[in-house]
Design brief:
mainly beta, homodimer, 194 residues, 6-stranded antiparallel β-sheet, 16 strands, 3-stranded antiparallel β-sheet
Chain lengths: 194, 194
């Protein structure tokens, strides 16, 4: 057996902090969504316009080790969704189907509490609680949106195929068929007008 | 807005314990590898045969929400690799390429300390440290094996495409080109005879 001088045990390229989900390393992109970027997704437009349009509603960190669209690769991300409401409707992400609609995704709750809203292509909705340790499989052909129902940031992780892509337009045009609003201090689903 | 009585916020189907990586929920399979299942992968066969063949070396929990082989789905798993050595070679997993060799995978360290050994199709090896919070992207066409270099269990998580599959045979036949052995209490790579 010959000692191999050329193989070093290097530090990993990425690190994740399990207490808050923060990821560090190479090729990490960050994207921020401010209230103004979410025009049209909340029901109460008057309430929407009264809020600070520059307010950050959510921010995403993502590891993209290969180019978007490459088949067989994976992306890994973390989203922080702020607490708050537009009128009585909780802050939420835009939500999307995948562009390659048969691609699945895992989400996992890290901090805070919220709801994962899911919708199939026939517009049937259902929802799962999110909390530290919740783990969610988002099947193929299912639109997904996260909603912060708590008083603190909702932080969650995600892993998805690098060729999944995002189809935001379907949700921009038609929304989800259900909205989550606060009624007497508790989240309750109502049908969506959009 | 009509209240939707038919949408309940249900508990998530899966849960993960961030302190030890344990996963709970539906469709979770468990597989155990005992020493006898790892015949031929360690260099020192005399030392191998002197150990208890029924000893558990590693166990895997995996969430398989769709059938193996389905394109577009994802699997999520957790492995616990016991501490120990066969002669001076650390306990390790069998290691594999993916059957669909262009499929990638994420690993993340949860507990303990170890090494992720990586090898390309030209048999070039390199390695990354594993520890709680280490996050590893295993690119397409890269064989991967984990090695426990510590005194406690090495626990790590994984997410991979449901159509990746496993090609164990290449490693059974030819091994990795490097082995990690303990020299003066420290891990050191040596070239493999196999």
């Amino acid at each position: 057996m010959n000692k191999l001088k050329n193989i070093q045990i290097t530090n990993p390229i990425y690190n994740v902090d399990y207490l808050n989900g923060n990821i560090k390393g190479k090729s990490i992109i960050k994207s921020i969504k401010r209230l103004k970027d979410l025009a049209g997704i909340f029901e109460d437009n008057n309430a929407f316009l009264k809020l600070k349009q520059e307010e950050i509603i959510y921010s995403v960190q993502a590891i993209l080790p290969v180019d978007e669209g490459v088949e067989g690769g994976l992306f890994y991300g973390k989203t922080i969704l702020e607490p708050g409401k537009v009128g009585n409707e909780y802050f939420m992400t835009k939500g999307h189907f995948h562009k390659k609609a048969d691609r699945a995704e895992f989400y996992w709750g890290i901090l805070g509490e919220g709801v994962l809203l899911l919708m199939d292509e026939e517009r049937n909705c259902w929802a799962e609680k999110m909390f530290p340790g919740s783990l969610h499989y988002i099947n193929a052909f299912i639109a997904h949106r996260t909603i912060n129902t708590g008083d603190v940031q909702l932080s969650f992780g995600a892993c998805w195929p690098s060729d999944a892509g995002h189809n935001y337009q379907e949700i921009i045009d038609n929304g989800f068929s259900a909205r989550l609003i606060e009624v007497n201090g508790k989240p309750e689903f109502v049908s969506s007008q959009k």
